[in-house]
Amino acid sequence: MEMIVTDFQRFFFSMTRLSSFPWSFLEENLQSNKSADLISDILKQTCLHSLCRKFPPSVRYRRLFLSELVRQQEAAGCEPLDELYDALAEVLGSEDAAEFCYKSYLLPGGDALSLLENVALISQGTTGLVTWESALYLAEWALDHPQTFTGRTVLELGSGVGLTGITICRSCSPSRFVFSDCHPGVLHKLRANVELNGLSEATTPAVSVERLDWTTATDERLQEIAADVVIAADVVYDPDVVVSLVTLLSNVLRGLSPEVLICSTVRNQETYDGFKTQLRSAGISHHAITGGVSHVFPYNRASKIEMIRLHR
């Protein structure tokens, strides 16, 4: 039962699609026991949890979640839970006009990292205000391979809302981490999320958030950062962007030869193949990192995700 409650908690705080929840197991338990104890346990670890009070998922999401719990309880003929109806009444009385909401991701040690993300996938002319699958995959890979980052300076390109970088800072002990992006709206949200998770220049690791335009980044600036590891997730999505990305990666590898890891959700095979072709044209070799990752975060694993290591 504890595993099921944990799964509900993980899915709820990361605002996973409700259809992905283990509702069938809950229904089976309610039908066999005619008791709402399991719903009570789930409620305590989701809507009534202190994390929900501090960093709540969207009003609409909580409304749908609680409504389904009520439906499951009533369908099984269990004795009504006052706290369930109270929670639903509270959320029904709340306004749902927010452009942003909190998503929280539970780390293996029991801690959680929370991010302020956009409700819409595309907003302010950018896709960088939400967390994408390849960022979650790269974060899971980092949790499986902390030695890649421990004691090292890490530069992240296209950090977005910060999920991957914050996971590495919280769990992999880098000496310094540089988040970077270019879009003003993304940078504003990224700085807020970094601070939200207790990270700054004064913490360990030392953390900075920088505007890094791939078309104008200078060799001098890259040398100043002096990254031992360079990472990026979901940055290969537009042929025009790929050109400047490959130029930047070529400059990165020409300097201190850091370890470079690129993780991509392959949505358009032609665009992704074009990225690899441009890498070869720039004299950059690559090989795929295989082996899979531990399933820490809930997300759609049916997507084609590839992670590659670059080198000259």
From TrEMBL:
FAM86 N-terminal domain span: 3-91
Keyword terms: Methyltransferase, S-adenosyl-L-methionine, Transferase
InterPro entries, per database record: FAM86_N, Methyltransf_16
GO molecular function: methyltransferase activity
UniProt-listed GO biological process terms: methylation
Classification via Pfam families: FAM86 (PF14904), Methyltransf_16 (PF10294)
One annotated Gene Ontology cellular component of this protein: protein-containing complex
Keyword S-adenosyl-L-methionine: yes
Family according to the record: Belongs to the class I-like SAM-binding methyltransferase superfamily. EEF2KMT family.
Protein name as it appears in the record: FAM86 N-terminal domain-containing protein
